[in-house]
Amino acid sequence: MEEQMMVVAEHVSMRFNMSSEKFDSFKEYVIKSIKKQVSFNEFWALNDVSFSLKKGDSLGLIGLNGSGKSTMLKTIAGVLKPTKGSVKVFGSVAPLIELGAGFDMDLTARENVFLNGALLGYKRKEMEEFYDDIVEFSELGNFMNIPVKNFSSGMISRLAFAIATIGTPDILIVDEVLSVGDFRFQNKCEERIQKMIDGGTTILFVSHSIEQVKKICNKILWLDHGNVKMFGDADEVCDIYSKA
């Protein structure tokens, strides 16, 4: 039986127009824009990137800062639309792209659980069933009635990860979120990710830790200035990357 495709990226390119000059105020920018006195430099964050993932695959995206990893994840999550090419995603997506994204910092942690659940497509009744598990996993039981704006980055990371990994999303996207947690909690997250992989969830994972990537992922996409440097088996690509 043919394995089910979950993500298909075909010739994806992403262009950003970056202003070639600085402005002292937004008003100055608007005035010059109206007068067509603003010039832009084209910046291609991704150039002709193609790959595909099957159900249960775990893909690590590696490369130096600015290589296009986060931009690639955002196109898969539907946050950005490619300038060229296409991304096809089959199934539900739970994105952990930016720390605290989707949180209302003035709301309590409990309120944010239900807010984020709604954004992920869960009904309130479902979130009520998941709530105790989220609190237990995040280890934030004493802080659920406190506004998230008072949380440390590590606490926000714990809450965000606990919410995103409830149930069984078809695709989980994790971008550097685990890097702000303590070592023990990182191991706890890795164990949950592995259980999700075993259950058929497809993972897209970004981390500066090559050892962490090798531990979690079976495939690697190595990006360099938006170009595909290498795509293939995790151990093989990571070994070459480490020696580069």
List the helices and strands and how they pair.
Layout: E1 5-19, H1 26-34, E2 40-54, E3 58-62, H2 69-77, E4 84-89, E5 93-96, H3 109-119, H4 124-138, H5 153-164, E6 171-175, H6 183-198, E7 202-206, H7 210-216, E8 219-224, E9 227-233, H8 234-243
Parallel strand pairs: 3-7, 3-8, 5-6, 6-7
Antiparallel strand pairs: 1-2, 1-4, 8-9
How is this structure best summarized?
The protein is of the alpha/beta class and 244 residues long. 36% of the residues lie in helices and 28% in strands.
Q: Would you mind describing this structure in some detail?
A:
With 244 residues, the protein is α/β, with parallel strands linked by helices. The chain is built from eight helices and nine strands. It has helices at residues 26-34, 69-77, 109-119, 124-138, 153-164, 183-198, 210-216, 234-243, and strands at residues 5-19, 40-54, 58-62, 84-89, 93-96, 171-175, 202-206, 219-224, 227-233. It has a six-stranded mixed sheet with strand order 5-6-7-3-8-9, sandwiched between helices. A three-stranded antiparallel sheet has the order 2-1-4. The two termini are 39 Å apart.
